[in-house]
């Protein structure tokens, strides 16, 4: 009789180690500065720095960065393979929607128009996703 071994713990451990290595390319201060530059003009009446909104931006930027880093394994000749582009768009969209819903649900400010906020959140998340993709690609090139 054979023994059934679950590979899930090994996969989770390997994924965690990969994320840990990717995070070496990221500085929290850089996320804070980027978030402040993008969101303070939208939330003029709201004290953005050191708030729960900044914390949400940090969390979602980190998630986007790691997502981009994971997609870096599908980069060939400096381009993301076509078959993975739609998956990447869906991943970015999911994170963007989550951050936008959080922000629009907590802050009632006339200056923060919903469409403007959605656009800025999308730019912010896409920026950090691409940074993660670059970091992962750079890491892969260094291994070669």
TrEMBL record:
InterPro entries: Uncharacterised_YbaK. This is DUF2521 family protein. The lineage of its organism: Bacteria, Bacillati, Bacillota, Bacilli, Bacillales.
